[in-house]
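Appendix C: a fully annotated inverse folding record. The material below is reproduced so that readers can follow the format used throughout the book. The structure is listed first as tokens, followed by the designed sequence.
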């Protein structure tokens, strides 16, 4: 079974029958995904649900299963389709400024606690630029399989050159739906997710490609993927959820048991962002710019935190 990580509570998990060691699929939940607010695993959680999550997380915290983390993330923003919002908008209300700011902030520094001698330390990251994708699969409904095939073609052509620190969040134009299965689709059950592709066969010097899928947060996503006052702020919150999960559990998309390549994970509650699903906060980056983000689980504080 493979786990895929989705933002705000919905984790995409594909189970293989008969594997007693496989990671379990909780009712209506897939590891690594962010759920819509009207989904059983989305926010807002009621008091009982919140208490259950926090109790489980506090007792077990995030366990380290030994898989890869991203040590100093290098974010390259990919845009899919025409009219992707918040890319060319005036700063600071754009995604390039967001990724540059969040990866250079005290908020991001909280990830240092998840560095180890074997996996390496986790330090601040950088924003590397934006690529407007061309020749993407046509249509208003795209599958994750299509996304993975297309990304591999970009590596083969040299359009993107991933290394062990590369993270590629794909931001989609309005009106494009991403399907993980016949019953799970963007802005219907989930808000976003992050995934992993094994590219070792391409001989490009790194084993994995780490990517995120960020649907436009207007339309059907509006109001279901965050409680902030603007679509952009909710998009930032969802994007921070996936960024932090990609850094601390980079290869979750290929995990089949409670062991490598799974990294930091809480059984059965999910990844660093899932334990604090849709709990928003305002942080300030190194340039003094404020951002709406999601709180993330801190083992050291045994709580959801933003620093």
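Designed amino acids, in order:
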């Amino acid at each position: 079974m493979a786990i895929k990580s989705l933002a705000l509570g919905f984790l995409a998990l594909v189970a293989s029958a008969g594997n007693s060691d496989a990671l379990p699929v909780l009712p209506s939940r897939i590891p690594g995904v962010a759920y819509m607010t009207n989904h059983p695993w989305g926010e807002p959680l009621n008091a009982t649900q919140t208490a259950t999550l926090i109790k489980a997380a506090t007792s077990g915290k995030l366990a380290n299963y030994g898989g890869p983390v991203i040590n100093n993330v290098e974010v390259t923003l990919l845009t899919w389709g025409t009219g992707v919002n918040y890319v060319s908008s005036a700063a600071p209300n754009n995604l390039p400024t967001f990724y540059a700011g969040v990866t250079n902030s005290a908020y991001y520094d909280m990830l240092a606690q998840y560095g180890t001698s074997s996996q390496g330390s986790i330090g601040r990251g950088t924003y590397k630029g934006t690529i407007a994708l061309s020749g993407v699969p046509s249509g208003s409904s795209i599958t994750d399989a299509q996304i993975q095939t297309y990304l591999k073609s970009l590596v083969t052509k040299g359009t993107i050159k991933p290394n062990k620190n590369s993270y590629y969040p794909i931001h989609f134009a309005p009106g494009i739906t991403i399907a993980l299965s016949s019953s799970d689709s963007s802005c219907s059950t989930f808000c976003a997710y992050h995934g992993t592709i094994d590219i070792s066969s391409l001989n490009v010097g790194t084993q994995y490609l780490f990517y995120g899928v960020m649907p436009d947060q207007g339309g059907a996503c509006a109001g279901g993927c965050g409680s902030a006052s603007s679509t952009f702020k909710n998009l930032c919150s969802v994007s921070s959820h996936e960024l932090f999960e990609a850094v601390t559990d980079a290869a979750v998309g290929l995990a089949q048991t409670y062991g490598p390549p799974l990294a930091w994970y809480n059984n059965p509650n999910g990844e660093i962002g899932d334990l604090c699903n849709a709990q928003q906060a305002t942080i300030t980056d190194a340039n003094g710019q404020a951002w709406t983000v999601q709180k993330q689980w801190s083992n050291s504080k045994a709580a959801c935190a933003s620093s």
